[in-house]
Structures are given as structure tokens and as C-alpha cells.
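Internal ticket - ligand job 222, cytidine-5'-diphosphate:
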Amino acid sequence: MRIALDGPAAAGKSTVAKQLAERLGFVYIDTGAMYRTLTYKAINKGVNLENEQELTRLLLNTIIELEAGDLGQRVFLDGKEVTQEIRSIEVTNMVSKVAKHAGVRKEMVKRQQQLVENGGIVMDGRDIGTHVIPDAEVKVFMVASAEERARRRHEEHKKQGIESNLQQLQREIEERDHLDSTRAVSPLIKAEDAIEMDTTLMNIQSVVNEIILLVEKRGGKS
Ligand code: CDP
Ligand code: CDP
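stdout (C-alpha cells):
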């Protein structure tokens, strides 16, 4: 059983994916963390983010490891933990520039497909249902209004003690969604056979429960 979750920023993908993985005993794979890790390394090395060849070469020489930890997924770049670093505002606002390049996506998709070979996974991202696992047993495209998504991120920042401005957050989210949905290579788009779930008015638990029902319908355990 493979569950593919796609959708725009702050739709609730990773929160829902983590809970699904726990309930089902599946492995959770956050593909956004992989693009973030490459972006973090590229910024640190001063690579021009418009230079596809250089970014692709950098990725080919980069080891990205995802590991399940007690507090969620841990991320390692060339053996060093970068779980916190890849969530910085700088990385968040640059990652779509890196993710638009065909060479980068080709290598990322190859690595992601290797991670799903054994099944029993929940994978979230932007192109999981369309490109990474086009034959996934369950595909969900999660959406929510931009206002609600900005509000959720704002709340999250408050809890973490990070100062942020609600209007600015919404602008940044919309800008990233625009870049992700309009790029030439595997843009953010609902797969034809994905179920669209508008979570604007839904709490996390009801989203998780609905997806579990879909899994059960497809004969998966819960
Ligand atoms: O958690 P959040 O929704 O803020 O973003 P993320 O899932 O960490 O993804 C960060 C960025 O990586 C996205 O805005 C996309 O530009 C890119 N991404 C992608 O292109 N394809 C994926 N499968 C996953 C992420
Ligand atoms: O992974 P993605 O960027 O799609 O979103 P997320 O990081 O899972 O969710 C963003 C924030 O919205 C988190 O703080 C969640 O707890 C919250 N959330 C919510 O309040 N209601 C939902 N139905 C889903 C997420």
C-alpha cells in the first residue's frame, strides 16, 4: 500500500502524513525535505540557483538521508543533521527556484522511487501522485484557502516562538504556490485519479480518518 499526498504549502500534508504513518505502521517520507536540503547546501556553497547544471551536479554529489525520530522526521546532509536548518525562512523562500529544474527533479524522483520500493509508505510532496508513484493505491490532493493556510503557519510560528506577519506569510505562500504550479516540469497539479480534499474547515483528525477510510476501501490495514 502506497499513499500519495500532494497539495500546496501548509495544506496539512506533513501533519496528516505523520499521523497516518503512525496509525497504519507505515513509513513517512517528506519529499519537500529533500528539495529543502539541496537548497540549503546550494545557498551555503554560493551556487547560482538559476544554474541547472551546477545544481544537478551538486545533487549528484550529495547524500540526503531521512530518518524517523521521536519528534518527527530527521534529515541528514552528507552525514550532518540539518533537520532545523532546512526550515529557515531563507530556504523556504528559495526552494521553489531549485525545485523547478528538470535535472534536479529527475534525480530526486529516482531517489524517491527507490524509497518506496517496499510499500507501506505515506509520501507527501507536489508531484507524488503524478510522477513519483503514478500507480499509488491511494492518492489525495489536499487544498485549503490561502487565508487559512497562512493562519495555520502563523499559529505554528507563534507556538515555536518565531515572530511572523500574517499578511506577509500569506504573500510568501501564494508566491511559492504560484512558482510550484506554473513551472514547466511536473508542476503542482492534482492527478486525474486523486481525491481532492478541501481541509479549510476540517481538523487534522477528520482528515486522517477520511484517508484511513480510503485505505480500508483499497484493502489496506488500519
Ligand atoms: O511544508 P511546505 O508545504 O512548506 O513545503 P515542503 O513540502 O517542505 O516543500 C518545499 C518546496 O519543495 C515546495 O514549495 C516545492 O517547491 C518543492 N517540492 C517539489 O517541488 N516537489 C515535491 N515533491 C516536494 C517539494
Ligand atoms: O505539510 P504542509 O505544508 O502541507 O502542512 P503542515 O505543515 O502539515 O500543516 C501546517 C500547519 O497547519 C500545522 O501547524 C498543522 O498543525 C496545521 N493544520 C491544521 O490546523 N488543520 C489541518 N486540517 C491541517 C493542518
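Auto-summary: The first strand starts at residue 2 and ends at 6. The beta strands are 2-6, 27-30, 64-69, 72-77, 80-81, 121-125, 138-143, 195-198.
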